[in-house]
Amino acid sequence: MNDRVKQLWLPGFVTFLLSMSLLALNEIFGPKPFALMKVGQLPMVLFYIPWLLSLPLVGALGAYLSHRAVGSQRAIFSSIVFPVLPFLASILLVLPVSLIFDRFIGHNPSPIGLVMALLGWVLAPGVALLAGGLVAQFFLSRRSASRQAMSN
């Protein structure tokens, strides 16, 4: 197996599959999401609190798997935030297209709705993933540094 696969793609896909599985389980069995909305309007952002609370463990697992494969700092960071990258890509693709073709689309998404989707599906989960992943990376790097010092 190639180094890039071991250091980036495998940990990234493990974190993605685990986070999406936890989200699906939360939607089926968990409590209703917290909805950020104005009174009398449709919800603007849904926050799945139990899912967000589980994401630090998922980020820590991604950091561990990438660190164990001797990944670079960039590979470790990418494997931590890998689950939110598809959401970011889709929002960044939909936003300019909806702004350009706004009057031609029958069901047009509002720009503020896309910004709120960015908040609920990219920023909040990204912060949760980074909270666990960066802490794990800190402890793993300290542990490997102390092993190197003891071997010298």
Description:
The protein has 152 residues and is mainly alpha-helical. It has one domain. The chain contains five helices and two strands. It has a two-stranded antiparallel ribbon. A hairpin with an 8-residue loop joins strand 1 and strand 2. Helix 1 runs parallel beside helix 3 and helix 2 runs parallel beside helix 5. The radius of gyration is 19 Å and the shape is elongated. The relative contact order is 0.16.
Global morphology: elongated
The N- and C-terminal alpha carbons lie at a distance of: 31 Å
What proportion strand? under 5%
- Helical residue percent band: over 70%
Which structural category do the helix and sheet elements fall into?
A: mainly alpha
Q: Could you give the order of the helices and strands? A: HEEHHHH
- How many individual β-strands? 2
Rg calculated over all Cα atoms: 19 Å
Question: Main sheet, how many strands, which sense, barrel?
Answer: 2 strands, antiparallel
Q: How many discrete domains?
A: 1
Largest sheet, spatial ordering of strands: 1-2
Query: Please, what is the average pLDDT?
Result: 87
Helix segment count?
5
Question: What are the segments in which pLDDT stays under 50 over at least 5 consecutive residues?
Answer: none
